[in-house]
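hiii, so i know i said id send this last week but things got crazy w the move. better late than never?? heres the sequnce for the chain we talked about at the cafe, plus the structure i predicted for it. fair warning i was half asleep when i ran it
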Amino acid sequence: MSARERLQATARDGGSVDVAGAVIDHLDLWTGAVTKKSSSGRGSSGKIELTGIKRLRELILELALSGRLTEPEPDEEPAHRLLSRIEAEKSRLAAQGLIKRPKTLPDAGDSQPYSLPPHWCWVWLGSVTNYGTTDKAEPNQVAQNTWVLELEDIEKESSRLLSKVRYTERQFKSSKNRFARGDVLYGKLRPYLDKVLVADEPGVCTTEIIPIRGYLGLLPEFLRLALKSPSFKRYANDSTHGMNLPRLGTDKARLAMIPLAPEQEQHRIVQKVDELMALCDRLEHQTSDQLEAHETLVDTLLGSLLKPAEGSLTQSENATELADNWARLAAHFDTLFTTEQSIDKLKQTILQLAVMGRLVEQDAKDEPTTQLLERVSNEKQRLIQSKVLKRTKSLAPLETSALSSIPESWLWVNLGDIISVMDAGWSPACPPRPADPEKWGVLKTTAVQVMKYQEFENKQLPDNKTPKEQYEVRSGDILITRAGPKNRVGISCVVKETRDKLMISDKIIRFHLIETGLSEEYICLCLNAGETYNYLEQAKSGMAESQMNISQDKLKAAPVPLCPANEQHRIVQKVDELIALCDQLKERLNQASETRCQLAEAVVEKGLSA
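okay and structure toks below
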């Protein structure tokens, strides 16, 4: 049965007609409202969050805990009588010495987070549960097969139990909290305030998890929903204390207000929430499957553009094959490139085609690459003889047999063959704030993005330090990140415009090309795609992915597909045009996604205000 059919069946069952109807009426809205998870650097995952379905889950909980998901039954005991029975039970247990006499909580007065049905009531968490009363277990007091629960075993948001580990696999030395079957286990440590589950067997847990036991008439599953509700999470987040690992204190937790429904209605609410959450799971899986299928389709079709020519196709035949594949792609453009990830892959394909010599046509009238390279070599020798440049050690001969094919008019060269100078900067201790307009600053590595320079990413040089003007960044510099996390190393850009008084740091390498008509933008493009990019990925070194490095010597040895100077400029122009179109497509996509998210939020607000 499809998600839509399940929703329709739920609507026919009664009680949740409004929720199921809202889902059915806005199904595309819930599944289409997505946002991209934050990420940066080359090779970012580009993962997305199903924002619409996440908000739908919150709506279900908000409706459930405000009495609008189910209908009351006639002659059902109202919640205030259940509360009176709970107070009587607590007094009986205290008189028998079975529990400590609970601390008196202040009068709630008229403070209510939101309105409830007249047969419900607001209660303090500490008045209907034993929150804060825990039994301790020492290592020598547990059996070998005892369940030992840690926060990492519970999935955030969903609260699914990821693994159940026994004492034989997870022995401990310090005290744990003991819990019984049916206890509600609540993670009090932020950012884990959304980890709540009901124990299906006894065990022990970290002291950062609080076992909670409700008094008679409070269903554990209903209490779990109350602790996962948006209103309780807001209270908990606002009430945490501690700098490094904020946590919800016992007194604050006991003073949290939760809604109390009649006992039998609690059962109906839990059942209805379980049904609707299962539907959300189904929608989520269907949407994820569709996105995965879409990604596979995009990869396949874009891959057809990059497929190397088979046999002995001539240049014109190869160009015809590329044109046919591109036309096939263009015919379905609107249905293929509907996610940020697919547009980013299209951008990367454009760069790949550019450095393979398949984005623009070769022109026989262009100066041959061999002559360009000869002019570069002669100019370099002249600069060395004039003592403008220092003589550097010769690079090892470039092995091209393993490199991909390029047009006959192109040549593989080492990056070091075509550059004049290469240096790294200076990284003095600086305050984190950006430099004032008239002050000297030091560029952070985040100033270097993929083919994009961001001068505002800098730190102000302290007044007691003298700037080193030789490291001042200028227009025409090619910058590449040298050190940092793996996905931030080897990123490069060309500085087209920049403010004065900014220096490169020692984590940024800067170099210039021999001035013979070479295009800085084209060389930077090569560093970000194709064989040059692959080489840089392999050239990174370090003990951990969090701190990698690439040396100047390895950078100079990078293979670059060199083409005639005029062709370099044509390639850059074509890439700029196509990337601009991609950016426009992404902007429209982002606007549409934002609109869908706003509409989903509006539907939620309408449902809550109904």
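btw Residues 1-17, 310-316 have pLDDT under 50 and may be disordered. thought thatd interest u
miss u guys!!
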